[in-house]
Amino acid sequence: MKPQYPLFSQVALTGDLPQYHLKRGDIATIFEHYHHPESPEDGYSLEGFDVPQITIEVTASQIMPLSDYLREEAILSKFRNLSEHQQKQLEEYLDFLLQKDQTTPVN
Questions:
Q1: Exposure letters 10-20 (e unless 16+ CB within 10 A, then b)
Q2: Nearest alpha-carbon partner for 64 in 56, 55, 72, 52
Q3: How far apart are CA 91 and CA 85, in angstroms?
Q4: Mean pLDDT per 10-residue interval, the chain, length 107 residues
Q5: Phi, psi angles (nearest 5°) of residue 70
Q6: CA–CA distance, 24 with 21 (Å, rounded to integer)
Q7: With contact defined as beta carbons under 8 Å apart, do 15 and 24 qualify?
Q8: pTM, rounded to two decimals
Q9: In this structure, how many other beta carbons lie within 10 angstroms of the beta carbon of residue 26?
Q10: Helix ranges restricted to H, the chain
């Protein structure tokens, strides 16, 4: 099975890992990939986190490509700079797009 993320690529955490004092968005490098026969998700060993000699094991759903995380943060930064009224309008438009996406048949 081909790994979802290539070795030595940088990824960001999708959520907090309090047992390691790590937070969503902390960045690390993948150095090992493994397959769990009992789990539908692949596993990865990560290092980097600006903390020497820490290696953690995560599942694919606990990480995202660094480029995706940076794009999300840029969008959120723009959202935070909008007025409350503009934020509400944008939320309504996003709801409209999501609803449209759910009702549009896939070819």
A1: bbbbeeeeeeb
A2: 72
A3: 10
A4: 83 94 93 82 88 84 95 96 97 93 76
A5: -65, -40
A6: 10
A7: yes
A8: 0.78
A9: 19
A10: 66-80, 84-103
